[in-house]
Amino acid sequence: MFAGSMHVLSMHTSSQASDNLTVFDYSEGCLTMSTTPQSTPSATSPPPTGAVARPALTVVLACLGVFASYVPIGGVAVSLPTIQRGLGASTSDLQWISDFFILPMAALILTFGLIGDLYGRKKAFLAGLALLAVGAAVNLTAHSVAQVWVGQALSGAGGAALLTSSLALISHAYPDFRTRAKAISAWAASLGLGMSLGPLVSGTILEHASWRWIFAPTVVICLIGAVIAVALLEDSRSAHGRAIDVPGQLTAIVAISGLIYGVIEGGTSGWTHGPVLAAFALAVLGLVAFVWVERRSAAPMLSLDLFSSRVFSGAGVVTMLTMFGLVGIVFSLSLFFGNVQHLSALEIAYRFLLVNGLGVVFGPIVGRLVGRIAPGLLLTGGLVLTGIGMLSLNTLDTDTGFAALIAPLAVIGVGFAFVMTPITSIAVSSVPHHLAGMASAGNNTLRQLGGALGPAVLGAVLTSRITAGLPGHLADSGLADADREHVRSAVSDEGLSAAGHLGLAPEPTGRALGAIGDSFADAMHVCMTIAGAGMFAAAVITVLTIGVRRAKPHGGTAVRASGPATASGRVPARAAAATVAAGTGSAAGADGA
């Protein structure tokens, strides 16, 4: 399953925690384990929680939570052109509407995982529903872009809490990896369902009401979920060796926020602009500080020893590249469909249903294949297929119809279904069992960071390429010199929103809009090429770091990778396969996910 050998050192915990320094070596189809006692059990260590009486209800609520957290992502994506017109927002403003949701998810996933472990996953789940509902309520009353940013940030924080707590609750409710795999497949399908139905719901609402009402369904779903969870959801926690890592959290926020701000503003204001350079410098300092803090922390938020595993590191890079490409092209296509082809939000939603809907259909199938076919092989095939679909969109033009988009978008949807489940399985199974929760949370953080960088980078590419290509298309349009300069200046100052009020006569306006559309199409081709190349690069990284071979069974009874070794000090490779099967779906902090 994994090529070569893999060494992972377990996390060092405080002197009051019972832990061992464990070295796992995955080679020759077998997992070798050696342990060295580090400390004795603490008398104050909490006892393990008992079995869950209503595991099915736990799964239903977990699915509801992740569904609620992803409905706004898809719903807002297809509504961006309408929001832009309603608030007079620039392209940079729209990028921040997307990133103010994703950034808190990326920055707070690890923290909410720790909060759930320490104080109870039910509390973290309810906090996530509350934050998501409050954020949506803020957007319901928004009359400025800044207010939408605030609402998105609150909702993103709620999404981080729901992602970590929902999967952790499932992992506790189903300790057996086979039943857990089925539950997590439902969880992953709910995530995709939220992405699929969000655009359709928002598109339907925009046909009859103001864009603000697209946030109302989230409030309703969260309130229903909270009422049921308060009364019936069973709690769990895993406080062993965990502690809130405030310095780690603060330095992570500084690094991530500085990077995203620098990319977004660099694309609009110039890469040598003072605030842009300061943001990148702050990002570098934040990253250095994060590494320094985590290396010295008794209970790190993210143990950097995880990255000593070539497999885990490769999975993290692949996750970032995948989400970078997918979220980036959804953002770019949404603007193209709305601003150039002048499609309604509902028409845009139908197009994106090909991507998200097929992911929901094929997700459970891939979940069953993970236990039979090497996850690395499934992942490589999915990445190549997704890359082909993205490059196929280079035929996109201003008059491209729905029929011509069916094949490329469907290929992306099917390919992406073969990416999400295997990549999480690989990340979780590449580390000892007691670090699986941290590994899955770390992988999820990298996924959200890639999702934040996608709109930021490709949005910057769109802006710069449109600005650079517009003069040539304006010259080809036959407009007078004065009109060409007027249009170029307007787009340079206001972005695409200037197309709605160029102030020209009808005939020159039509020519100007045609030139803007052609410039946008050219810029889209560059974005599709970047995203597609990223998928192929991720496939190469998968082959080099993860491998595409399945481990050979070694006989014996399947046990957890962190369980007792055999007399020879070796754990059967089937244990690793069990861990892989348990890791289907997207994973956040889990109790042995």
UniProtKB/TrEMBL annotation:
One of its GO terms (cellular component) is plasma membrane. GO terms for biological process: response to antibiotic. GO terms for molecular function: transmembrane transporter activity. Its main location: membrane. Residues 58-550 form the Major facilitator superfamily (MFS) profile domain. Keywords: Antibiotic resistance, Membrane, Transmembrane, Transmembrane helix, Transport. It is a multi-pass membrane protein. Pfam families: MFS_1. It comes from the Bacteria. The keyword Membrane applies. The chain crosses the membrane at residues 56-80, 100-119, 124-142, 148-171, 183-201, 213-234, 246-264, 276-293, 314-336, 348-370, 377-396, 402-428, 449-468, 523-546. PROSITE patterns: MFS. It is found in: Cell membrane. This is MFS transporter.
